[in-house]
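hey can u run this one w/ alpha-D-glucopyranuronic acid bound, need the structure tokens asap thx
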Amino acid sequence: AAATLYEAENGTISQGVVESNHAGFTGSGFVNLDNVAGSSVEWTIQAADPGPVTLALRYANGTAVDRPMTVTAGGTATTLSFPGTGSWTTWRTVTVRVTLTAGANAVKATATTANGGPNLDSLGVDPSSTGTDWSR
Ligand code: GCU
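ok here u go:
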């Protein structure tokens, strides 16, 4: 199956706001997470089958400081780096391989430092074996 895109602005946002003042996002905007530890976006994603998928978080971080986030999915938590992208209009993708159950799965990205998360654009879910089914 092809990759599926879940927009950040359609997720459940805790301590963040939807904005559109930095170009290059998909959908209607991005989530500007508050600059606090614990700011988060959560999605409910659908898996046709149990097994591994690649999650791809698209983000911008216009600062020089990493904005790490813990990503929980399928019962596991992984802390990922979201290093500076050079500007708030330069978007990059960070990926992590996780194992889902069939049906609905919660995926939550939570900022771990007082700087909060980066600006989050979307969550991609790629069920291919290579996890490289991304055109962006
Ligand atoms: C700037 C930028 C925001 C960003 C914020 C931050 O204010 O315009 O989009 O979210 O910095 O540092 O998190």
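The chain has a mean pLDDT of 94. anyway lmk if its weird
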